[in-house]
Amino acid sequence: MTSNDGTLDPHLRTPSGKLRARSLGFGFPGTPGRWNAITDVPGVEVGYVTLIEGTDVRTGVTAIHPRGKSNPGDPVAAGFHSQNGNGEMTGVAWIEESGTFSSPIAITNTHAVGVAHAGVVGWTLRHHPALARAWLLPVAAETWDGYLNDINGHHVTEETVIEALEVASDGPVEEGSVGGGTGMNCYQFKGGSGSASRTVQYGNELYTVGVFLQSNFGARKELVLPGISSDDVLADDNPIDQFFAAPPGAGSVIVIVATDAPLIPHQCKALARRVTLGLARSGTSGSHFSGDLFLAFSTANQGAFTPALETFFPGREHLDHLDFIPWGHMDPFFEAVVEGVEEAVLNSLVANEEMIGRSGHRSPGFPREKVARLLAGARAS
Fold first, then answer.
1. Is 292 a catalytic residue?
2. Is 237 a catalytic residue?
3. Residue 266 is assigned to a structural domain of this protein
4. Catalytic residue among 103, 252, 282, 298
């Protein structure tokens, strides 16, 4: 699972050497980018702080910079979609109003979303004070990690969020129990952070659609692996099913879609809606008790949306101009989202081990060897 130069193949393993879904023999449609991650979109950076302490702390923060740490004041075109609103993502009222946002994104646990919001403000004040003094509506999102984590312990602080924003970088993305995904479960296996990407040829340009998700959803009986229904072969060892505080399928999923293709806000919203289809490929029907919130943005058209700082200076009236893919040519980008989301879900499962957390609660790891044998058998038959 190494490349010709001896380094780990980023399509098969994460930077720390964890297996990814393709390493088990899963075949996925489409062509991934260099790292098969959201960071294949130029400028996008991802950072984590993971908090695993004692027996009860299993949480963290994920940070995403749409245009990198150096350029948060240039708005990106964006669109939001709520599949089910039993969750929280701040800043979406402004995204719905303007079709843009300009701050970093922070993802954490449910009871730390306010801290995440404040941490984005704190980081911006530290590094871009003029922007912070002008106006900020940060994007902070959450999923619930209370099965494994002491969610009411205030373990995530503003400094935790600032550190995640500080360490963010491009390149291969770690997956599994890291960052905001540390204490999460998916299809009643250990879940968490996952990413994938697809390239799309349009004319003479090659664009990238990248996906990042924090998976914390789904009942075991729902999980559908490509060509395998888990209800029969993966139904055993399911301690989460007996957890009284949440019915099977409860949880949440936050999905961020990024692309360097030039899109207008309504097209970004259309990409966000296609996340539902990628999740459905993995089996979920979307529980009433799950907050399923999706944000898509385009890093193209740099400088085309008036930065917040400029709106306060009279005499700078001008017209902005946008390039965008014609609506009739959007289907390949929709396909890229669906394919990337399905793979990112499986990456979040495969790059994981069993975790024991709060009150001795246990989340079993995805049975990689068993699934690899099943896939090999399916190919042989």
1. yes
2. no
3. yes
4. 252
What are the tens digits of pLDDT across the range 4-27?
Answer: 454 689 999 999 999 999 999 999
102 catalytically annotated: no
Q: Would 362 be classed as within a structural domain?
A: yes
Residue of 23, 102, 292, 348 marked active site: 292
* CATH code, domain with 340: 3.60.70.12
Query: Which residue among 103, 282, 287, 290 is the active-site one?
Result: 290
Instruction: Say which residues have a Cβ less than 8 Å from residue 250's Cβ, sequence separation at least 6.
Output: 217, 287, 289, 290
What is the C-alpha separation between 210 and 257, in angstroms, rounded?
6
Count of the separate structural domains present in the chain: 1
Contact 183, 144 (CB under 8 A): no
Domain that holds residue 70: 21-307+322-380
Q: Is residue 12 part of a domain?
A: no
Residue 329, domain member (yes or no): yes
Query: Could you report the per-residue pLDDT of 113-148, keeping only the tens digit for each?
Result: 999 999 999 999 999 998 998 889 999 999 999 999
150/93 Cα distance (integer angstroms) = 30
